[in-house]
Amino acid sequence: MASVNRPNKQQNHPLDDLIRKDRIPHIWCPGCGIGTIFASCLTAIKECVATGKNGFDLDKFVMVSGIGCSGRAAGYVKLDSFHTTHGRAIPFATGLKLANRDLNVIVFSGDGDLFAIGGNHFIHAARRNINITVICVNNLNYGMTGGQVAATTPYNAKTTTTPAGNAENPFSLPLLAYASGATYVARWTMLHTRDLTVSINEALSKKGFSFIEVLSPCPVNYGRRNKEKPLETLKLYQEKSIIKNGADPSELDIDMEKGIILGKFVDIDKPTHSEKYDKLYRIE
Ligand SMILES: Cc1ncc(C[n+]2csc(CCOP(=O)(O)OP(=O)(O)O)c2C)c(N)n1
Ligand code: SF4
Ligand SMILES: [Mg+2]
Q1: What are the b/e assignments for 250-270, b being 16+ CB within 10 Å?
Q2: Which of 103, 180, 250, 274 has its CA 20 to 30 A from that of 27?
């Protein structure tokens, strides 16, 4: 029999040192995109630390999540991490950053968490230019609770709460982030792992409120109600993605027929909340 090159069971995974192995197996379903995005995030953190730039130090990275399948990330990462209440990841993250400016605070959470129950926190943290990085896993629905409609669900899509189709229009997340004042805004899919890793690295290095939307399949609750088999969603990402760095944020509606624009749309410099606060209230 031909010898097959199988990985040795004892062999370590390159991200092992950033995973709480005692929490494995994880809860994510086969075909779910969250794990891949989580891996890109951990890779970007490791890369930032390896460069030694900006004083990056693993002990100073913090991950905050809300509730949802995506929100489980904070429980799996071997960093200081906070699995907070639904919709409140950004207020927790803001508090951490204001209390200790040396921390690199990453929010990793879902579209429902960040833009429905937590939508208000998102726009105000961006407006204030709080120096944190927010990564949103956008699977177009509330995955964890069975597939209800979200603020990101496309018009006409079927969910448990919109069985005849969604009558509402979704938010364009990059447009919302831009309009609210974010200094860095990008969108990728979970298929674009290399671009995503580079983008997370850039966002972590950016001073100010940085935001990345990552489209991700939820085959179990969204895909099967919308006649999308797991691999078909990935095929759609591959065939419909158009990389257009610098695209006008007003042109970023997700249109599965015409195409999904990906890339980096905003990368600007402006004073952070703490810098503006110091100018007014701290006397040297
Ligand atoms: C205050 C409160 N309201 C509602 C819920 C129920 N709930 C848990 S997760 C969730 C939605 C999660 O959706 P999303 O953030 O998109 O995460 P996903 O599971 O899709 O990754 C909801 C409504 C809750 N836990 N707490
Ligand atoms: S329910 Fe959906 S989002 Fe949640 S783990 Fe399963 S596939 Fe992923
Ligand atoms: Mg979701």
Answers
A1: eebbbeeeeebbbbbbbeeee
A2: 103
